[in-house]
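Data availability excerpt. The first of two example chains:
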Amino acid sequence: MTRQRALLYIHAAAVLFGLTGVFGELIQASAAVITAGRAIFAVLSLGVFARIQRRSMLGVLTPAQIFVLVIAGALLAGHWVTFFISVKVGGIAIATLGFASFPAFITLFEGLVFREKVRAAEWAVLALVTLGLVLVTPSFDFADQGTVGLLWGLASGLSFALLALTNRRAAAGMDAMQVAGWQNAIVALIVLPFAVGQLPALGAMDWLWIALLGVFCTGLSHYLFVSSLTKLNARSAGLVIALEPVYAIGFAWVLFAQEPTGRMLAGAALIVAAIVWSGLRKPAH
């Protein structure tokens, strides 16, 4: 693994993350069905990637670790379900920009809940993301589908922030591939009861899109992301992943003619700039 290959891997992962909303738009099924199918195919593909890297997915876990994985799996299920509802209601760009709010939620939780010292620059990032979301909001009317879609996107960002904090604080020391495999398995177990009755109605193309979503946008993207971290630090990787909303908006524009307004583009620019600025700052010691 060279640095150039690691950069290629992390950019490919960002593109695959950006494609998630595209598959959510293509699949003619509920958010529960998409989430359950994605998780099942992700577990299968992660198992293959683990074998390629000669890593075990079935290591011995303590009861405390199992408890953490169950909580994290539930948060991941909530994140995916709310994200795909946002895609269905508000469109790909709105959903992705709502999800992109998660760094702001992390800052809030670290400052207000965990009582960690939050510097002025971090509050500035939060303010920029908030202003960006105000610009992205189509209207402040709950009868507007775009606004409702953004609220679901914000719920997706909130649940992902809680997931990130859970993994950061409680899953430390565990193998990243193993964590991803277990969490996806838990997502499948949680969501499948709500989706199983709808599975027979899925068409062949829907199954294909779900398989591609699970294998490429989940399993492969996670494999590329984890592999890139052997040569890149988390900050460098985070800066590239911050481009996900840009890719998502581009895909939605080209593939589905979901043309963003000037106001939405301005809001997107503010959100991406805030995430990039956050990544460029030196961490506090």
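And the second chain:
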Amino acid sequence: MSYTLFQRHGEAATTTTTADAMGNMDGMSNGSMSGGMMMMVFQTENATPLYSNAWTPRSTGAYAATCIFLVVLAVVARLLLAGRSIVEARWLDREMQRRYIAANGKIPLSEQIMTDPKAQQMTLTANGVEETVFVVARHNAQVRPWRFSVDPLRAVMDTVIVGVGYLLMLAVMTMNVGYFLSVLAGVLVGSLAVGRFSSVGDH
């Protein structure tokens, strides 16, 4: 199907074929899809940009240096996770110590537990010695209060950890085999070094 646009006297008429226009659009879309599919496979090109076109290894030595940088960055990511876990444990210990400070006019914790209607009297046996204890189950999660000395530092640490994680993710998304293996090697080395300090569930 074709259509003709008639112009005024002295102007040339323009004729456009719908089939040709559709064919051009299909060709552009197929070309972009094929280009996108090419980016979704692993490749081993040394001259793979990292984070910017200015950071493109032009030699084997530059490529090796880039891979070493990614290994170190992945190790730093594991160190940050371990450091955050250690700091969180210290903050929790400090919070627990602050919670049990005795104050005048306050009922001792032992009396509060004995008078709690949810307390259940049980017998604790250890190495042949029996002792009567009261067990109170906590049904609701307790939210720790916001503290100026803790929460801003936690927010900064989380931001740095997420930023480093996204940098590693962008390196993997280049689909370069060397970059991908370097990130995995850094995670392996970092986990071997400080993995025991990281909390369960950290990635």
